[in-house]
Amino acid sequence: MKLKSRWMAALVVLPLALTGCTSTTNTAATTDAAASGDQVTIAVVTHGSPGDTFWDVVKSGAEQAGKDLGATVTYQGDGDPVKQSQLIDAAVATHPDGLIVSMANPDGVKNAIEKAVAAGIPVITINSGLEQSKAFGAQTHVGQSEFIAGQGAGEQLANAGVSNVICVIHEAGNSGLEERCKGAADTLGGTVTNVQVDVANVADAQNTIKSSLLADPSIDGVLTLNPGIAVAASQAIEEAASSAKLATFDVSSDVTQLILDGKILFAVDQQPYSQGYLPVTFLTLQARNGDVVGGGLPVYSGPGFVTKDNAEQVAKFAKNGTR
């Protein structure tokens, strides 16, 4: 009986010992992974100017992904394609493990991106330039098809009874913004007229929109492509005593509140936080495990639509700076 008891005790102790060994091995592996994370560097170079509410959200997403994954993320932005190309070249010279680039002016940054690819640096494009992304050598694009998003906006406006729209472009030469207006024109079934303003001068933008409404009372819809311009357009509509219905692209806390107040019909949401967070995740995974995401096809972060039905929920996230 004593011999049998000793064997039973040994059988109980053996699994416990093995369990202890397994736990130690996993802890060591986790520690090694965390340490290797410090060696992964991802460079982000966008066309977004510092302080822009939309690009601040993209930046927050990229930096949070870096913190979550233990990777180093650098972020720079400039709306001038020549300066953006210079920033890309400077980032490539540091030999990062991955490069994330937006392409508001694809031809303007093409050479810089192709040089990065030739140097063996994995590139992911975000936000703008989906159509040129694969041709320039990027592995995938995280964003939305601006034309398809514009089509969705046109359909929503048409369903609201709108037939004569001004589409407010806030950055000259931004091909993505032009595609949004073209998409809206494709599905509205009415008239879409582009109006150019400068996002850096919101007061002038408001006056330009107001003047357009006063000059043509038949305008019954305003489509803006930026949250700040949407707020200005709402004020312009009030000042012009216009009954035009307002819709916009992109979300902010001000926009969600205007939706809840009934002053904006909807916002097209491309989820900029995801545009920052996801590519950092993809490139870090590639550096650590050899995974290449996308297969040459885009990863769509939008479009979604924020309306009165879901604006309250989105507003909670917008206050946190993540929507």
Overview of this protein structure:
The longest helix has 36 residues, at 2-37. This protein is 54% helix and 17% strand. Helix 2 runs parallel beside helix 11, helix 6 packs parallel to helix 7 and helix 8 crosses helix 9. It has 323 residues and is of the alpha/beta class. The protein has 2 domains: 37-144 and 271-292, Response regulator (Rossmann fold); 146-269, Rossmann fold (3-Layer(aba) Sandwich). The protein starts with a helix and ends with a helix. Residues 1-37 have low confidence and may be disordered. Helix 7 links the parallel strand 6 (164-169) and strand 7 (191-196). It is elongated, with a radius of gyration of 25 Å.
Q: How do the strands of the widest beta sheet line up side by side?
A: 2-1-3-4-5-11
- Strand segment count: 12
Percent range for helical residues?
A: 40-55%
Uncertain segments of ≥5 residues (pLDDT<50)? 1-37
What are the salient characteristics of this protein?
Rossmann fold; 12 strands; disordered N terminus; 2 domains; single chain; elongated; alpha/beta; 6-stranded parallel beta sheet; 323 residues; 6-stranded mixed beta sheet
